[in-house]
From TrEMBL, chains A, B:
The keyword Oxidoreductase does not apply. Residues 199-357 form the Peptidase M20 dimerisation domain. It comes from Nereida ignava. The lineage of its organism: Bacteria, Pseudomonadati, Pseudomonadota, Alphaproteobacteria, Rhodobacterales. Pfam families: M20_dimer, Peptidase_M20. This is Succinyl-diaminopimelate desuccinylase. It comes from the Bacteria. GO terms for biological process: proteolysis. GO terms for molecular function: metal ion binding; peptidase activity; succinyl-diaminopimelate desuccinylase activity. Keywords: Hydrolase, Metal-binding, Protease. Its EC number is 3.5.1.18.
């Protein structure tokens, strides 16, 4: 009997205890972007320290100017990996669209099987705990892990990770290892596990356009005074051309053409564009003309408006002509697109589009370049085979439309490659109301990590 | 000695008591558009009933499906006028821009003299009370009014007056009179009183565009899924052409060319476009090319966006791709523009502009045609001369950019002409933070009404 089998059995037998532990963590409303939830972020960090300690892992909460980090070490032998996850979650508005309290997690029966419902179920508390529980099972069965594992948990991932790079620099020796493991991505489909080897970068911008000095009455000034909502709308409407391409000058510098090999690999995945869209009530791809969905999501940059706000937005009507109009805009980046150059070009484009009497203020919300993993490290193929043993279909190397800046930071700050394995599904509704994580993702995720730890020990 | 002089003296001697009464009314947060303030609207109606009773006027609070009306009668002799004002006020957001509590009114010294600060100071509680106080002074001095006065106060003016027309129809005999007097407009300038003889109409529309069925993560769907904020922005950007004209099909049907006489009359007012704009931090007219400010405000129709809201708008950043995006849009109408036809044309235009996978829901927020007063009634010239006696400059017949549907309703529902006299100033910041009413407007407003009552009795 291998070392692995009793670990897998232990995971199977203790699934409900593991789920209850995840629920404990999910009950803490650790929304990092909203200062009102600061104490809850701190509480989530404390919970993780205590949970690691209960497994015999030496862990500490480490202060930052923002929310704390949690770092733990097992001081084992063999290959040294650092596992990264984040304990903070997205805001929950609009709250009225949730069918249950986002911070009262529960198991729900659905047509597709049991799911864990609640904010953070998939992003990232459930995923983070798949790894922690795999380690707990190894230690419970064998008294130790098959390799040397360090833990590194962040509480600011959903708010731009302002403390991350300084913390990595200050603790470079402690956080460096042979390989970083990250669990914050998805399966290719419910039967096909994935290792994400290219991630888009992210640039966030908030702009506020001011016209009149004060809010005006549209009866007294309407028609004569400039309206900043109209100015902002015109700017947003101008950000894409008729082909769906982004119009910011120089935007496509550094966007690579896809290699025929990669194109073939992705074609072989037989991604179902129609089903992908249908799941969210859509029927047509709305991006750059002539691209497939996978290209749009993994290989092409975007410009999206994530929020817009101005004037009176409550119930009823108010004939105000507002002084200010704001929007939050983000760019997903690929290849070697330079976030700093794009930020400058975007700001200049907005400035150039302003009519008389308008001014604009910008606020940057973090920026990260796209990341391309090197899969030359044999650990990648070992992990791919280990995952293939657990799931119905073999694992695939895939791209990822989301931005996981930490993967790039491991490389640039710690000179450590990162391997991204995750068990999320497209319909998890992360960042949305009614977020869920399939119980199967949680269960087989733990089993997958147990297998990967075993594979990396060989 | 005339009957008038002791009334004017009584007003002068009792200014501070009158101001304190206005403060009492202003302390009641009677925001009609927000259901949370329903009880306060009721309290404001009660206050008015009690205040009228204290002057010996028989007044009653009258229930409607919305906020109550207040109706009072003096049963005097001579010409019968019905005075209309509204006791409800606009919402106060954004509250953080107020320098003091909007519902804690106070006298403030400013460079331009003393002002009454607070929500409703000018719109319309302060204006309403100029008339009530003028009546109180007449009664105090002479035991009665020089003409027969009825009072009619509404509590839904700032939320589209849904109960007004039904109430007028049900109480037609009681509310009809020889002439309606309305105090909800402004001076032409601080030295020149005005009687408003043409008012723009108003059409309010709220639209909500839905794209994906749920909010999406911009990393997982950005680039491929339609973004309703982009769709809405494009529609808003298309509502005006490069000349500043509204593009809704058929919009300009019924917009009259100005007569040379009216053009001359308005030119003679020597309106200072630059000063008008400069007061709110602007330097250029932003409306239809080739029109003067007075034309834009009094004689031309508009389309304005009064509010827009979608996605994440709190602190920080959230990479959401929202399911829905909403805007509140209003049209100011002139001449014989048909609000119903324009509503239909606007909705059709939006429908036609929707890309695949998007749907739209509309909500109408009231509509009123423009109103043109007949100044043939000698009461208009009598009132104009009475106002000219009170102020440095003679009174003028002017247009009004705002929409005061009640003026049209008096004509269509009660067959009563309306005379609009008000003492607001352009910088009163009505509908904005830090609303004020000059103490001079309040004081000379009361004196003006005392003079008008006297003039109408001759």
């Amino acid at each position: 009997m291998s070392n692995l089998d009793p670990v897998l059995s232990h995971i199977d037998e203790n699934l409900s205890a593991a789920t209850e532990r995840l629920f404990e963590l999910m009950r803490i409303p650790s929304i990092s972007t909203d200062p009102a939830f600061k104490e809850h972020c701190d509480a989530a960090a404390d919970w993780l320290v205590s949970d690691l300690a209960s497994m015999g892992v030496t862990a500490t909460k480490r202060a930052t100017p923002g929310h704390p980090m949690v770092v733990g070490h097992t001081n084992g032998t063999g290959k040294h990996v650092t596992f990264y996850g984040h304990y903070d979650v997205q805001p929950v508005d609009p709250l009225d669209l949730w069918h249950s309290d986002p911070f009262a997690p529960a198991l729900e029966d659905t047509d597709a099987g049991k799911v864990i419902r609640g904010r953070g179920a998939a992003d990232d508390k459930g995923q983070l705990m798949t790894f922690v529980e795999a380690c707990r099972a190894w230690i419970a069965v064998h008294g130790s892990l098959p390799i040397n594992v360090s833990f590194f948990f962040e509480g600011e991932e959903e708010s731009g990770s302002p403390s991350l790079i300084p913390f990595m620099r200050e603790n470079k020796d402690e956080l460096s290892s042979d390989l970083a493991l990250i669990c914050d991505t998805g399966m290719f489909d419910p039967k096909t596990p994935a290792i994400s080897t290219q991630l888009r970068g992210l640039l966030g911008e908030e702009l506020t356009i001011t016209g009149p000095r004060i809010d005006l009455h549209s009866g007294m000034y309407g028609g004569a005074a400039i309206n900043p909502i109209r100015v902002l709308s015109k700017i947003i409407a101008s950000l894409h051309d008729a082909e769906g391409r982004v119009t910011v000058p120089g935007f496509y510098e550094g966007v690579p053409e896809m290699s025929p090999e990669l194109q073939k690999q992705w074609e072989d995945l037989n991604f179902d564009d129609a089903a992908f869209l249908e799941a969210v009530g859509l029927s047509e791809l709305a991006g750059e003309h002539g691209k497939t969905a996978l290209e749009m999501l993994w290989a092409r940059p975007t410009c999206e408006v994530n929020g817009i706000n101005a004037g009176y937005t409550g119930d009823g009507f108010k004939t105000v002509l507002p002084s200010k109009a704001s929007a939050k805009i983000s760019f997903r980046l690929v290849g070697t697109q330079d976030p700093h150059a794009i930020r400058e070009a975007f700001r200049q484009m907005v400035q150039d589009a302003l009519p008389a009497d308008c001014s604009v203020e910008f606020k940057g919300h973090g920026n990260s370049s796209a990341v391309q993993m090197s899969t030359a490290d044999p650990a990648f193929e070992k992990a791919r085979l280990a995952l293939s043993d657990e799931w119905p279909n073999p694992a695939a190397f895939v791209g990822c439309g989301g931005s996981i800046p930490i993967a790039g930071h491991f490389k640039t700050e710690l000179d450590t490659d990162a391997m991204l394995i995750g068990f999320g599904r497209d319909d998890d509704a992360i960042h949305s109301p009614n977020e869920k994580y399939d119980l199967e993702s949680f269960h087989k995720g733990m089993r997958s990590w147990a297998r990967v730890l075993d594979a990396l020990s060989r």
